[in-house]
Amino acid sequence: MVTAKAAVLYGINQPLQIQDIEVDEPQAGEVLIKTSASGVCHSDLHFMEGKWTYPMPAVLGHESAGVVEKVGEGVTNVKPGDRVVVAFVQSCGNCDRCTTGRPNLCQNTQSLQRMGRIKLGGNPIMQFAGMSAFAEYQLVSSKACVHVPDDVPMEVAALIGCSVMTGVGAVTNTVKLQVGQTVAVVGCGGVGLNIIQGAKLAGASRIIAVDLLENKLAAAREFGATDVVDASKGDPIKQVQEMTGGGVDYAFEAIGLMKTAQDAWGMARRGGQAVIVGMLPLAEQLTLPNAGTSFLGEKGIVGSYYGSTRQTYDMPWLMELYRQKRIKIDEIITKRWPLDQINEAYDSLKGGEVNRSVLIMDS
Ligand SMILES: [Zn+2]
Ligand SMILES: [Zn+2]
User: Fold this and answer.
1) Among residues 38, 62, 64, 163, which one is catalytic?
2) Residues 35 and 119 in one domain
């Protein structure tokens, strides 16, 4: 049992409280990680704001990298001292989704939402995403650990654990974009910028960034957007359709709102697809305008979860592209905070000030 400082959520829209938790010893197949860096991701905010639900009190956090402290019985892929990024889908490796190359859709991953392995005030609580990364220590499945080369900073590796994988993978893995195809990206935060650089890597001919904020559109250009649409200045669907003569091959939604999901649908051309990357509210209904003509136009809508990651294959190549400076990650990190200031970090995310901020815990 190790004591770790953690950020605890007690209720919807309440500030997180910094408290000690107790993290259990690793059992068979498990690894104890000392957290180095943990990303301030929008997805955690959905739980804090009650758009998605999770048993509370809870320690959120799912975008992290750290150093292996201890391993349980039978763990052979990592050893104490190894630097690793932790994938938040801890796939089993055995189910039919895992064995057909789609481990992000693992059917047994829920079983790894372990109960009782971390304790708060002596009471067992659940481990969010099998991680609970807003803490100094995390107990994770060995299958979630991917090695980080010495010359890749931990804050960079942490971002590969969620926003980079989710964004780039939506293009390269989920839709397998072909050279020359056209793309629109609705929402240019941490994930949106990674969709943009994924589209650039994959050879998209037009990459149209759509946002309401000027600073985000400027960032989008730096990451590879060829055109920008300011959605505060007129109907973004019309603007994209006019620019492209009828829409794009793939329109990515990267915020998690019904309105922007409908926008993405409207921006997809005949034969094109809307790709939902943002976390739409769990229980709401999405209606699709112009269903009839869309059906005749063979339009599609598809979800993209975690960039359809195959973590042990995809995360190493993402780190290699970072080392070669072919993808930007340092540039996404606009602010660093200590764990104690996690509430300020989330306030600044809500205000749209930052691309991505990171909690640095190893100092
Ligand atoms: Zn995330
Ligand atoms: Zn599985």
Assistant:
1) 62
2) yes
In the chain, where does DSSP find H-type helix? 42-48, 96-99, 154-160, 163-169, 190-202, 214-222, 236-244, 258-267, 291-296, 311-323, 342-350
Spatial contact of 52 and 283, defined as CB atoms under 8 Å apart: no
Same domain assignment for residues 340 and 258: no
Residues 121-166: tens digit of each pLDDT: 999 999 999 899 999 999 999 999 999 999 999 999 999 999 999 9
Q: Which ligand is nearest to the CA of 105?
A: 2
Which structural domain, as residue segments, surrounds residue 238? Answer: 166-306
Q: What is the pLDDT of residues 289-330, one digit of tens each?
A: 888 888 889 999 999 999 999 999 999 999 999 999 999 999
Cα separations (Å) of 197 from 109, 182, 303?
A: 29, 13, 19
* Choice among 38, 42, 46, 132 that is catalytic: 46
pTM: 0.95
